[in-house]
TrEMBL record:
The keyword ATP-binding applies. It is a peripheral membrane protein. SUPFAM superfamilies: P-loop containing nucleoside triphosphate hydrolases (SSF52540). This is ABC transporter ATP-binding protein. Its main location: membrane. GO terms for molecular function: ATP binding. Residues 300-324 are annotated as: Disordered. Keywords: Antibiotic resistance, ATP-binding, Nucleotide-binding, Transport. It comes from the Bacteria. It is found in: Cell membrane. Residues 301-324 have a biased composition (Basic and acidic residues).
Length: 324
């Protein structure tokens, strides 16, 4: 089957009050694909989504959603798209069920209320007032509303922020099922493991430009991985069989094939009667790529980013287990 292009972005530019938030961005998303648009705060992701959803006119370049200009041909595009923005405008005194019913009134051929609530895992909260929902539950209500019109294209801006691990895993299943049934999904997220698991293609934005993009599997394979271990006492970096950087006694070798690099290092160590304490072999993760291409601004957040790199392995595997 030939997959059509559902979203086309060509040289998109967009300014807010003289500040150019998006500076010539191009990418394509195939029908039924999950595409992750990534980048640190302020990179221009939401602005791009707002243009794609037809809320704002492109300042330069062109965008097409399902073959149409989403701003000029809004009537053709809007009924076929669903959107979950970061800030939902709910009425706090309505219940969840009343909110869905109100939204159904604005939607052509909407899903039944119960089906939408079930998809978003909100069946048990149907009679709860919106103001009493937790942050994660509000995101789930947003998801229910975005899915009401059975959209062909779904824009999800940080869809799982505030969700607990179980709700997040359930949302991933919904997203995967929708894509398997042909829905095209463009999502932004700061949870890189989420992007790595869900998306088959991605682009990393920084300061309004794309700094890395491509198929998820291919891009990660091309980056290679790393082997880390405690540098044995009295061994100099120059004695190692592979180039390594050493920080605070932790040696890190980057390698296209990290398994092979680990074998080389272990053989070398065994021949000398040395142990490689804390040996860790890892394929590249999206987080590696992200930290490389979207470095933190100088100052406090630069240090946070380094902390994230050190803590990364433990954090992401804990999350992975919770979510399984
Ligand atoms: N309405 C607006 N008026 C002025 N500046 C804006 C407006 N909306 C966004 N910006 C600025 O444009 C830049 C890009 O914002 P945008 O919301 O697109 O980033 P983002 O990548 O979605 O960030 P985040 O991850 O924090 O959501 C930011 O510097 C932001 O301050």
């Amino acid at each position: 089957m030939v997959r059509m292009t559902a979203i086309e972005v060509n040289g998109l530019r967009k300014s807010h009050q003289g500040f150019e938030a998006v500076r010539g961005v191009s990418f394509e998303v195939a029908e039924g694909e999950v595409f992750a648009l990534l980048g640190r705060n302020g990179a221009g992701k939401t602005t791009t989504i707002e243009v794609l959803a037809g809320f704002q006119r492109a300042g330069g370049g062109s965008v097409r959603v399902l073959g149409h200009d989403p701003y000029a041909e809004r009537a053709a595009v809007r009924p076929r798209t669903g959107i979950m923005l970061q800030e939902a405008g709910f009425f706090p005194e309505l219940t969840v069920a009343q909110t869905v019913d109100a939204w159904r009134g604005f939607t052509d051929a909407p899903r039944p209320r119960d089906e939408a609530l079930e998809l978003a895992g909100l069946t048990a909260r149907a009679r709860t007032r919106v103001r009493q929902l937790s942050g994660g539950e509000k995101r789930r209500l947003d998801l229910a509303l975005a899915l009401l019109g059975r959209p062909d294209v779904l824009f999800l801006d940080e869809p799982t922020t505030g969700m607990d691990p179980r709700a997040r895993a359930a949302t991933w299943t919904v997203i995967r099922d929708l894509a398997a049934n042909g829905t095209t999904i463009l999502l932004t997220t700061h949870y890189l493991e989420e992007a790595q698991r869900l998306a088959s293609a991605m682009a990393i934005m920084d300061e309004g430009r794309i700094v890395a993009s491509g198929g998820m599997a291919e891009t990660l394979a091309a980056r290679g991985g790393r082997v880390a271990f405690r540098l044995p006492a009295h061994v100099g970096t120059g004695e190692l069989p592979l180039p390594a950087t050493v920080t605070d006694g932790l040696a890190v070798c980057r390698a296209a094939d990290p398994d092979l690099a680990a074998q080389t290092l272990l053989t070398w160590a065994a021949e000398r009667g040395l142990r490689l304490e804390g040996l860790e072999v890892r394929a590249a993760t999206l987080e590696d790529l992200f930290l490389e291409h979207a470095p933190a601004a100088p100052g406090r957040f630069a240090e946070d980013a380094r902390g994230a790199e050190d803590a990364r392995t433990g954090e992401s595997s804990r999350f992975a287990e919770d979510a399984r």
